[in-house]
Amino acid sequence: MNGAPNTCGRRCVRPSCAGSSGFARWAFREGKVQRLEQWLAEHGMTLESSWGYGDSHNDLPLLTRVEHPVAVLPDPILRAYASEHGWKIIDSA
Questions:
Q1: C-alpha dihedral over 73, 76, 78, 84, to 10 degrees?
Q2: CA-based diameter of the chain, in Å?
Q3: What is the DSSP string of 56-67?
Q4: pLDDT tens digit string along 18-67?
Q5: How far apart are CA 71 and CA 88, in angstroms?
Q6: Closest Cα partner for 30 from 71, 69, 63?
Q7: In angstroms, what CA-CA distances link 74 with 50, 51, 60, 81?
Q8: Which residues pair with 70 in a beta bridge?
Q9: Which of 11, 32, 43, 84 is the most buried (most CB within 10 A)?
Q10: 6, HSE (Cβ side, Cα atoms, 13 Å)
């Protein structure tokens, strides 16, 4: 996918995330946090040293929980929040 061993996004594309129908389950806003917390519990892991990347204010529930949040080409709401909280902002693709 992107070289990372495990990723979570709006749609989980790893085979273990697919429902019995074979379609991936969707996660949005707080749903991303729920999916992440479930995955962490299943693997006995925490968010220590974690990084999160988002481009939309809809990613705020997840980004506020990781140790290193990064706003990538952020929408105006996420940009304002990231600036106010001293997060790294990436403005180029």
A1: 110
A2: 43
A3: SGGGHHHHTTSS
A4: 444 433 455 667 778 888 888 889 889 999 999 999 999 999 999 999 99
A5: 6
A6: 63
A7: 19, 16, 11, 10
A8: 53, 88
A9: 32
A10: 11
